[in-house]
Amino acid sequence: MLKIETLSAKDQATYLQKKEIADFLFVHLEKYGDPHQHIMNCLDYALDQAVDKGGFSVLAREDGKIVGAVVINKTGMSGYIPENILVYIAVDASQRGKGVGKKLMQTAIDLAKGDIALHVEPDNPARKLYEALGFTNKYLEMRLKK
């Protein structure tokens, strides 16, 4: 049976809890992923108790094992930039097409205070889910790598 749980700064997540989430995301983000340390940094930011940081994670578990995860970071901005950014979402390949991603996203949307931004590759199949949940493509993102 699928169980949805949340973690935020108030839960005082341990290193091992964050590592379990990062290990899952590192594997299941597949070609859309980041280095393991970047994922850990994101989780440190989301689950840190510092005033200038924050966010949360939503997990789907089956038989105690993570089968889906979302990480949202607070941006610290309001009005001109969305208050939240969805940094990571992944669902185990064996669970795709069963509504796990939709449950995770809907829970994240319900928990987030304020607007949510996300970045998605044009060929990522998750794009359809985001659009079905009401996300729109307002800007073309551009980055300068230094």
Q: How would you sum up this structure in a few lines?
A:
This protein has a single domain (2-132), classed as Gcn5-related N-acetyltransferase (GNAT) (Aminopeptidase, 3-Layer(aba) Sandwich), CATH 3.40.630.30. The chain is 31% helix and 25% strand.
Please describe what this structure looks like.
The protein has 146 residues and is α+β, with helices and mostly antiparallel strands. It has a single domain (2-132), classed as Gcn5-related N-acetyltransferase (GNAT) (Aminopeptidase, 3-Layer(aba) Sandwich), CATH 3.40.630. Helices cover 31% and strands 25% of the residues. The chain has helices at 15-28, 36-47, 100-111, 126-132; strands at 2-8, 55-62, 65-74, 84-91, 116-118. Strand 2 and strand 3 form a beta hairpin. The longest helix is centred in the first third of the chain and has 14 residues, at 15-28.
Secondary structure: elements and pairs:
Layout: E1 2-8, H1 15-28, H2 36-47, E2 55-62, E3 65-74, E4 84-91, H3 100-111, E5 116-118, H4 126-132
Parallel strand pairs: 4-5
Antiparallel strand pairs: 1-2, 2-3, 3-4
Helix pairs in contact: 1-2
Kindly report how far apart the N and C termini lie.
46 Å
CATH topology: Aminopeptidase
Anisotropy-based shape? globular
The portion of residues assigned to helices is 25-40%
- For the record, the count of structural domains works out to 1
**What is the assigned CATH homologous superfamily?**
Gcn5-related N-acetyltransferase (GNAT)
Q: Radius of gyration in whole Å, from Cα?
A: 15 Å
Side-by-side strand order of the widest sheet: 1-2-3-4-5
Q: What would you call the structural class?
A: alpha+beta
Strand content: 15-25%
**SSE order in H/E notation?**
EHHEEEHEH
The CATH level-2 architecture is identified as 3-Layer(aba) Sandwich
Helical stretch tally = 4
pLDDT < 50 stretches:
none
Oligomeric composition of the shown chains: single chain
What's the pLDDT, averaged over the residues?
A: 91
- Main β-sheet, in a few words? 5 strands, mixed
